[in-house]
Amino acid sequence: MQALSPPPTTNLKALIRPPKPPGPSNRVPTRLVVQCIHRFDSCNFSSSSAAGVAGSCRTDWQSSCAILASKVVAQQQGTDTAGNADITAVNGHKTLDLVPIDNLPKPLTITDLSPAPMHGSKLRVAYQGVPGAYSEAAAGKAYPKCEAIPCDQFEVAFQAVELWIADRAVLPVENSLGGSIHRNYDLLLRHRLHIVGEVQIPVHHCLLALPGVRKEYLNRVISHPQALAQCELTLTKLGLNVTREAVDDTAGAAEFVAANNLRDTGAIASARAAELYGLQVLADGIQDDSGNVTRFVLLAREPIIPRTDRPFKTSIVFAHDKGTSVLFKVLSAFAFRNISLTKIESRPHRNRPIRLVDDANVGTAKHFEYMFYIDFEASMAETRAQNALAEVQEFTSFLRVLGSYPMDMTPWCPSSGD
């Protein structure tokens, strides 16, 4: 049996060739060559003596390797200052250059995963209308310093979020005077966006016209249909015998008057729209009721995680199954758990608008089929809300949670001039 041991006559320290000291004409250090020698002894050892020799030789071998390593490090530190050092070879293999610690990427921390310091400063929010619309004001209230993206239609605002052009969308769903905006409830069902918040904006309407135009010169007034309905009585009290024409949005009406230099046409819009489009305010605060508030919902591609540490609201839509008193049973599921409903809205079931009482088509009573939208004050993180929806699902053929989101708890005050 042959034992592995370093040669007794070989001095490992002598194998290191120290570099020549750099002179004026030789600034590049010589290559540091480290040779590691091992061989099998040809002499035979007994098992007892081999164990002792191997143990001592192993200790000497480890000590020699440590000396070699320390000298390699010392030589590398000396060659780094020259700026063009050769690669050290150990056992015939080239060593890899280490990346400086300062250049390594730093690991992510919880700070990197936290929201931006300024809430909403990097969000792109889509809204229907042009700058100066109330929807733009709602976007600014929900996400201060956001990038507001105007869209010509509500459908486009939905698509902007779905196509990642925008991060959020602001959608008006109801007004305290004009009621629900039915078109937008249909869009909520058609698209797969989630409600992640709500904002309530006091509406303060103004009658706008070109500079120098008096209200007696007006022949027509244009604005959004909701705005025209909210100011109908006030326009009559002002003695204006004008034609009322509906357009897509209030700020768009102001823009249209200014762009076309219409001196016989007024617009109902906000005071901010008058500033943006260079119009004068003929009458301020012309809404029929000072308690004029529009509720907007905030839409996103992903839902938020419901919580219980603040007031939450949940919106659902369902279609009732065949049977009697289905709507009563659904509402009872919330009443028994002391859950307050803040809204209930019915819309025609587009896929099945009419249901027959029986299978006969002649001489049979027909019922209109409806989809029901309900808002209730509870978070989906609460057990009572989960149990209520589980019971509702037993009586319905379709149920979808549109979103569970924080309520707008902003103190309300009657609208006043901006």
Quickly count the helices.
10
**Unreliable stretches, pLDDT < 50, 5 or more residues?**
12-16, 28-55, 80-96, 108-120
Please give the number of β-strands. 22
Largest sheet: 6 strands, mixed
Instruction: Give the integer mean of the pLDDT values.
Output: 77
**How much helicity do the residues have?**
25-40%
What does this structure look like?
The chain is of the alpha+beta class. The chain is built from ten helices and 22 strands. The strands form six sheets. Strands 6, 7, 8, 9, 10 and 16 form a six-stranded mixed beta sheet that branches. A five-stranded mixed beta sheet has the order 13-12-14-11-15. It has a four-stranded antiparallel beta sheet with strand order 18-21-17-22, with helices on both faces. Helix 9 packs antiparallel against helix 10. The termini are far apart. The model is unreliable at 12-16, 28-55, 80-96 and 108-120 (pLDDT under 50).
Write the layout of secondary structure elements.
Layout: E1 4-5, E2 33-34, E3 39-40, H1 47-80, E4 89-90, E5 93-94, E6 124-128, H2 134-142, E7 147-151, H3 154-162, E8 168-175, E9 179-180, H4 182-190, E10 194-202, E11 206-209, E12 220-223, H5 225-230, H6 232-237, E13 243-246, H7 250-260, E14 265-269, H8 271-277, E15 280-284, E16 293-300, E17 312-320, H9 326-335, E18 341-348, E19 354-356, E20 366-368, E21 370-376, H10 383-395, E22 396-406
Parallel strand pairs: 2-4, 6-7, 6-8, 12-13, 12-14
Antiparallel strand pairs: 1-3, 4-5, 8-9, 8-16, 10-16, 11-14, 11-15, 17-21, 17-22, 18-21, 19-20
Helix pairs in contact: 9-10
